[in-house]
Amino acid sequence: MELKRTALHSLHKDLGARLVPFAGWEMPVQYAGLLSEHKCVREQVGLFDVSHMGEFRISGRGSPAALSQLVTGNVAQLQVGHALYTLMCNEVGGIIDDVIVYRQSLDAYFICVNAANVEKDAAWVRERLDANGTHFENVSDFYAQIAVQGPLSSELLSRVSEVDLKGLGYYRFTEAKILGAPALVSRTGYTGELGYELYLDADQAQKVWLGLSEVGQDLGLQPCGLGARDTLRVEVGFSLYGQDMDDSTHPYESGLGWAVDLHKEGGFLGQEALAKVKDEMANPKASVQMRLTGFSADKGPVPRSGAELFSEETAQQAIGVVTSGVPSPTLGRRVGFCRVPKEFAKAGTKLWVDVRGRRVAVTTQPRVFYKDGTAKKDLI
């Protein structure tokens, strides 16, 4: 199948990016190198092309109640100008996708979904959305998305916007012109650092990317690829759909129980199943219960997604699986997430991972490895 290309594809080639297939798209995995790009975002500011992500609009007088029934969070109570990380689950509690919902007005929402799930999500929502008083649009083809991430991201955007973005709170958004291009500017990101995500017309993407690159030269700005995006998000404990969760796993075994509101008015699809799961997981005598936990290793090859875990070096039966694993440039260790039975998820548990026939010793620990990020820093 032919890979899709974002509106910024030609610029990535001009910059010498290494391009790889990802979620049906040809995307830049790195430019100057993963270590340089990772360090740049932790200390300065980096640009990411995330235009492969999908965007939906749901509007109409019935949209608050209708959308609320499709996600685990309370979007009906979300204030205008606020964003919410939430989940779409199926009837048995499996995770269809993790999404960010933006409330643009009392009866209009903008939703960002994962690239690999756009068509699946659109069909799923259309099938279940009450047509009475609601209108659904898949507007993914019309948007580009640029992520501006790092401690100096606010300084960069203050130079190119007429709106004072330094007063924009975490998980808040506004409409603004960036270098003259209308954009939805959201103070969100996937790196753990102060950052913004810009949703703008695809035909404006190159102008904005080039303008930001020029204005940010003295701030040390660099273009950054999917490689650094992965190491950055794992260090701060952010999950990736398709690896750390999918429709065969539920929120409570994926470390996402906090995103489920079992008591919101009107309920939601999968609520009954998830309530039962939560009760079962609270029972210490229940059968095998899986947990997503973190792990780290001081040396050896990096345990990657799919690698099996063992409780003892001589054990032949795997007890769990690695879902994400990266070399941590910030910490100088190998870190990642794994799904294992509850009794093995306790911090400090010694396990072994089979990495291409080689056993690597790992130790479980909480999934947040790096806690010094600036994402939630108050800028006022």
Largest sheet: 6 strands, mixed
Query: CATH homologous superfamily of the largest domain?
Result: Probable tRNA modification gtpase trme, domain 1
Strand content: 25-35%
SSE pattern? HEEHEEHEEEHEEHEEEHEHHEEEEEE
Overall SS class: alpha+beta
Strand tally: 19
Could you tell me how far the N terminus lies from the C terminus, measured between alpha carbons in angstroms?
48 Å
Low-confidence runs: none
Radius of gyration: 21 Å
Gross geometry: globular
Mean pLDDT: 95
Explain what you see.
By secondary structure, this protein is an alpha+beta fold. The model has no long low-confidence stretch (mean pLDDT about 95). It has a 6-stranded mixed beta sheet, sandwiched between helices. A 6-stranded antiparallel barrel has the order 14-17-16-15-18-19. Strands 5-6-7-4-8 form a 5-stranded antiparallel beta sheet. Strand 18 (about 350-355) and strand 19 (about 360-365) form a beta hairpin. The termini are far apart. The chain folds into 2 domains: about 1-285, Probable tRNA modification gtpase trme, domain 1 (Gyrase A, domain 2, 2-Layer Sandwich); about 285-375, Aminomethyltransferase beta-barrel domains (Elongation Factor Tu (Ef-tu), domain 3, Beta Barrel), CATH 2.40.30.110. It has helices at about 10-15, 35-45, 65-70, 120-130, 155-160, 205-215, 225-235, 270-280; strands spanning about 20, 25-30, 45-50, 55-60, 85-90, 95-105, 110-115, 135-140, 145-150, 175-180, 180-185, 195-200, 220-225, 290-295, 310, 320-330, 335-340, 350-355, 360-365. The protein contains 8 helices and 19 strands.
